[in-house]
């Protein structure tokens, strides 16, 4: 079947979008988090065909949970629980009922002013989750590790960075990597009591922010970061300090990346320039050992033959978020619309 | 601050008066009050006492009133329209750019249809919302929005037919009939119901004759004939006569292979035949059939007699053109409109005026009328823009100069500025402003600079949008603003970082703040940043100095005293250090002078001594003495060591 793209206008700029995973059946419902509006909210949606016989599905809003400030990140801590970071510095854990998605979201935990400048408000810019643990970062340059199960603060790295942090990713249970406004990346060992990074390196020479970080689903030592300039960097943490590849990709900031859950060679990226691309990362993440037992990477000249496709025609406004589930991709954009891409080949 | 929003009731009265009066609730402000403009169409009223020495009146609660324009387009349902139409608007600008090199009428038509479908979707959304709404007042306002967008679509469609579409041979009739059928579907359901039942004797239905006449007037001759056959007397001679006349009506088609002249002749012939049938009085027993015959010969009195059955004259416009002048071209419809509109003394509605102006081809008047629609200029802006790009719009001012592009620009600027007021729709507004240089980008700069930027994420997005449209001054002013805020909050790392983005003197200020903080508290802020900073360090001397000084600290901490010493001496001798920092800088030499291994050479020591004496004012007496002592001792031991004939001596 051909690729099918369908946009729905929702009257709010969408900053984050997430499928709600289902057992045994196709996903139908998803979360959205809005930003840059007078009142922002986390909403639950379902896909419905208004007329039985029609193939077209439209999103319909099931519930709305208004929040203070912008929604800056949504990540799952458990199957039906999400951790939400807000631009007023709060972090919340919300639960959606498994049986009745229409019922309002339930607040499980609420950390008020997790990030702050004393009395002043400070944005909690992002968070990442790993098996119930939540790592949050803010413009104040602090990192907090929270327990999404018990609702307590497990560790705080204060002054982790002298300027604001913009992206974070769990590498493993005891290690997180953060990226700041200048593209300065730091790896933190959560077991050590010192507030000093275990390693640090720069994303690129242009001193622009690291907007998102993810690690490879099957090779956890490979870390990817997207930059505000639109370029994409890949590191092998076994030999960090320099990115193994740095590719100029989008014309403006990379806003979110995701490896396809079913195909670890496929990467999806979206950008502030309104593009949604899929990448074949097989060559870029594959390393081989040469005769001296040295790890070698794809030679530079091969990068030209990298497979990158545009999934949808570029929008005139930024695409802030994407989430992929099998052959279907959801995108949220600054033109106050949600896009659903169906029949995507992976 | 006590602010409140309240509904303002416009005083009903002369609708045409340019000024409107609003009454503030209660006696909230005393005689004296001031007023200050906010961003966009907003202002605040505040009490202001002009009698200074008297004590403030007691009954007055000092309240502030924020007064703002209630913008229809900011309601959630209509925000969809705003965003969706923005996409089409931008494609239109691209198409217009492309059409400079090749003809692009088809593309324009496609985009015009897209606009209409957006309006339609919006109307449907409003209808759905209205059907769900329980509150009477809200329902009423939704209903009025529906009316507004309904008439917008109607006008747009007619505009599309008359000015955007490329009609073969300019014969507008089929399109006009389609427009009438689409927007004024009268009797359609009855006709369908009757045909479906397909029973003889359908005239029992009270609406039978109205329906038949309606179908004839809409130009659906086939349907009318089918309906006539359902009459119980359908087989009679009178019916056969009318059926025959309807069947034999010539229909013009550009591709039919006959010229307009030929067609006109056969058409006139046919009508003359019909007229003779009518005057032979064979239909006298069937007044309804007689009416149909009178309609098809284009008899004015016949149309006049059925006019009262319709709510507006648009319904019969198609029929009138069809039976009086089917060869009419686009610019020949004015007379038909005048004839139809004059059939009944109905009060002129706004829609009437717009349609009349359109049919007369007076686009200037159309746009003037369209601007009266209370949709915050959405329609006027988009319609003017598309007509302008199609090259159909020619507006002359009273001096006969062409002001078309100025009209288009001013509408877009107005609409764009309006959207910039909204917290979320600013980016949409920006894309409108950016599409009409040079005035638009300049306005955008002023508006963007004044936009509240609460988080860095927003700042980054504003900067990205500004960069996209080449507004470099906004990039630096927003960065400067975030930088200043970070510095005011004591977040020097953030301040340095944003200063580097602003690429201006802000960097020097932030660097100075870092140095003073170090001089006061002995902890150097933002070390992680300074040690990794690249070319940004070259922005200002102070920043460069700060970076180097930070590097000195790093070397000192890692016990590389030789290198640290060299760096320190170069910092001292370069004389770029700010005055207030000399004390710190000179005192930093002390531990190195006193170290076990000599760090400074004799030459270095001389340099430091020179600087110390030149800047004796920056050090207090005791500290200066201590320095002199340490310098003298270091000079002594280095001179000795160098005197031994080691390599250093020669330097």
TrEMBL record, chain A:
InterPro entries: WD40/YVTN_repeat-like_dom_sf, WD40_repeat_dom_sf, WD40_rpt
Subcellular location: Nucleus
UniProt xrefs under SUPFAM superfamilies: WD40 repeat-like
Highest taxon of the lineage: Eukaryota
Keyword vocabulary terms for this entry: Nucleus, Repeat, WD repeat
Annotated protein name in UniProt: Nucleoporin Nup43
SMART domains (alphabetical): WD40
GO cellular component: nuclear pore outer ring
Automatic annotation (TrEMBL), chain B:
Domain of life: Eukaryota
Keyword terms of this UniProt record: Membrane, mRNA transport, Nuclear pore complex, Nucleus, Protein transport, Translocation, Transport
A GO term for molecular function: structural constituent of nuclear pore
GO terms for cellular component: nuclear membrane; nuclear pore outer ring
One Gene Ontology term from the biological process aspect of the record: mRNA export from nucleus
Main location group: nucleus
Subcellular location: Nucleus, Nuclear pore complex
Family membership noted in the UniProt record: Belongs to the nucleoporin Nup85 family.
Quaternary structure, from the entry: Component of the nuclear pore complex (NPC).
Functional note: Functions as a component of the nuclear pore complex (NPC).
Official protein name in the record: Nuclear pore complex protein Nup85
Species this protein is from: Chrysodeixis includens
